[in-house]
Specification:
The structure is a single chain. The chain is mainly alpha-helical. It has two domains: 83 residues, no CATH class; 60 residues, no CATH class. Helices cover 42% and strands 4% of the residues. The chain contains six helices and two strands. The chain has a two-stranded antiparallel sheet.
């Protein structure tokens, strides 16, 4: 199981006509690959011709509901024509960003010269995630779950 990030139109996403980065690599190398998506009922609408108007209607309704909270109505190109992008985030990237933020918060500590895979035990990370430390960054994760998933 893996996590893939998709950036593209909702029409393409819900039609299922996009490939994960792993599927793209497998196709390019001539390997077999099967993507399994959870919660995909047999009667799901996947026809782009049916999806595009539904997405545009949702876009307009959302824009209207947000009203004065928007400086201008929501508007983006939908359909199958715009390109899409996909990739897999990894623990090294997340660890690098967390260490970067931790060393910004802990300027008295010397940054390592190279990335360390053991970032959850890094002194700056430990100091920045201590209960008593008031970070200027919003914490949207549970450090224990993060550390447990890292391994």
């Amino acid at each position: 199981m893996g996590l893939d990030i998709y950036v593209g139109t909702l029409t393409r996403y819900y039609s299922g006509q996009w490939e994960t980065i792993a599927a793209q690599t497998a196709r390019e190398q001539g390997w077999s690959f099967k993507t399994v998506r959870p919660d995909n009922p047999d009667d799901a609408v996947t026809d782009p011709a049916q999806l595009a108007p539904a997405v545009q209607s949702w876009q307009a309704a959302t824009s209207e509901a947000l009203g004065d909270n928007l400086s201008e109505p929501l508007d983006w190109q939908e359909g199958m024509t715009p390109p899409y992008f996909t990739d897999k985030p990894d623990w090294d990237g997340l660890g690098g960003v967390l260490l970067w933020a931790a060393y910004l918060e802990q300027p008295g500590l010397q940054r390592p010269k190279r990335y360390t895979k053991d970032w959850e035990h890094d002194p700056a990370f430990a100091a920045s995630t201590a209960e008593s430390f008031q970070s200027p960054y919003v914490r949207n994760f549970d450090e224990r779950a993060l550390a447990a998933g890292h391994r």
